[in-house]
Known about the structure:
By secondary structure, this protein is of the alpha+beta class. Helices cover 34% and strands 22% of the residues. The protein contains six helices and seven strands, in the order H-H-E-E-H-H-E-E-E-H-E-E-H. It has helices at 2-6, 12-25, 64-76, 81-91, 136-139, 171-188, and strands at 34-41, 58-62, 99-105, 111-116, 126-132, 146-150, 157-160. The strands form two sheets. Strands 4-5-6-7 form a four-stranded antiparallel beta sheet, with helices on one face. It has a three-stranded antiparallel beta sheet with strand order 2-1-3, covered by helices on one side. A hairpin with a 6-residue loop joins strand 6 (146-150) and strand 7 (157-160). The longest helix is centred in the C-terminal third of the chain and has 18 residues, at 171-188.
Amino acid sequence: VLKLFQAITLPVGLRxxxxxxxxxxxxxxxxxxxxxxxxxxATEDGASWSEAGQYDSFLGVRGAEAVIEAVVRTLASFxxxxxxxxxxxxTQAPPRPAMAVVVQRMVEGxxxxxxxxxxxxxxxxxVAELVEGRGAALADGTVTPHRFLxxxxxxxxxxxxxxxxxFVPAPSLLRALAEMGRRVEQxxxxx
Length: 191
């Protein structure tokens, strides 16, 4: 099934629109933008689960044809064994084909991560899971992140687990994450 999806050809109008938007992403003095091509599907996250990484994303994509290929491969990942098994394990039903593909300017980060505005197993604190560099390995589960418990009011943080390397995020980063988390909760009226 996956090979059939990977062989699809995008409709001409969609291809033209993607390429026009891609050209707009190039910065001043750049001939081509470097982008991230990512999935966005309702089946990736829910009120009681989070399964980021079940569909493919591509980072550091450069060039029109590479963007089109990455869009097709991202769409095709909806039919990957990983995605189908993940969905069946949770719902006992095959996934509904509803996915958007986001093409956005690539931002290289010194630190990447996930912020839970409520502790996943209960509690009122926030939890940050952080890795150095790009966050793709965190999202797909190939690395163990550094975890920090963050007081939602003060931004004070405590490392959870053992320190496995020299990675120590600046306290100001963790306080800024707490502030962003509070703003997101306000905007959405909850965690």
